[in-house]
Design brief:
about 350 residues; Quinone Oxidoreductase, Chain A, domain 1; Rossmann fold; 2 domains; seven-stranded mixed β-sheet; globular; binds NADP nicotinamide-adenine-dinucleotide phosphate; binds zinc ion
Amino acid sequence: MFTINAYGATSATEPLVPMTIERRDVGPRDVLIEIKYTGICHSDIHHTRSDWGPVSYPVAPGHEIAGVVTATGSEVTEHAVGDRVGVGCMVDSCRECDECRKGNEQYCLKTHTFTYGGVDRDGRPTQGGYATHIVVDQDFVLKIPEGIGLDEAAPLLCAGITTYSPLTHWGAGPGKKVAIVGLGGLGHMAVKLAHAMGAEVTVLSQSLKKQDDGLRLGADHYYAISDPVTFEKLAGTFDLIVNTVSANLDLDAYVSLLTVDGTFVNVGAPAEPLSINAWTLFMGRRSVAGSVIGSIRETQEMLDFCAEHRLGAEIEVIPVEKINEAYERVLASDVRYRFVIDISTLA
Ligand code: NAP
Ligand code: ZN
């Protein structure tokens, strides 16, 4: 084991503070990564504030990690010292269940290991990427293609894959009308990706404040949900809606915007349950679905797709001292469109 500098939470109510954490020694199949940049995902805020249930503190969050390999175990074949690499929300899975065998590690039937807040193979809690280094099994390390900066690549490891996976699974592409609800970290990547896939993209945002940005990012249309005319005008329009909102919403109002056989995919993770009227669903054979991140194979495919289409996240790079301020701005929907921590400010 070795000790490194990190930044994290000691309780649900106190600001994040500098701390030290321990990493396991580099095993035969492990890669040691010097972290350069880590994105701030809204899930980091939900988790550190115990929105989803009890948390074991202290916890250093962060699952949008981009860095450089500085050491490899004796059996590592996929990565070499000096490689530009990324780590997302998972660092291991059982590898034996039906879903792992199919390459759906994110739906592991036993337990996949979250990058932070999980249980490491040595039984200790995993700690995330608000830290100088991380040790990860080579199978859960992604290659960041040349042409994408490490800073703009970091958010792809969660915000990118969480939107890419449902967009491809439900066939976003030419001839498809896709709505993205919420223009935050996930939402802005969803707009870029759906546009690059060839879909007709609509943003549904709380207001028109970010309309110019939304259109620049690739949206064809932009509506404020605060305007009641929006829901009347768009009723029965969309083949696919991807909801990225971190708070609860009126599901009936959004599902009514689907065409017959349309699908509303929820990726937002509010603390409260979502509910829907049965009539809204069956009067249009509509589906409500969920999706969590994406597999390792899909994540690499997404990174390669982003390199091919020259897509990165829109970021605001901050030093570690600004993390708590950034959290407040994310909660106020005042993020354009992902905060990324410059980890060199932690060393
Ligand atoms: P974010 O940057 O804060 O974006 C969320 C956006 O939702 C905001 O920018 C805002 O967009 C909209 N919004 C916020 N509060 C709202 C409210 N009360 N009513 C209506 N709209 C509201 O967050 P994020 O990092 O993209 O994450 C979004 C959610 O996805 C979080 O709950 C997170 O935990 C979850 N998540 C899930 C997965 C998964 O695998 N399923 C992965 C990562 C994150 P506008 O200002 O445009 O309205
Ligand atoms: Zn995330």
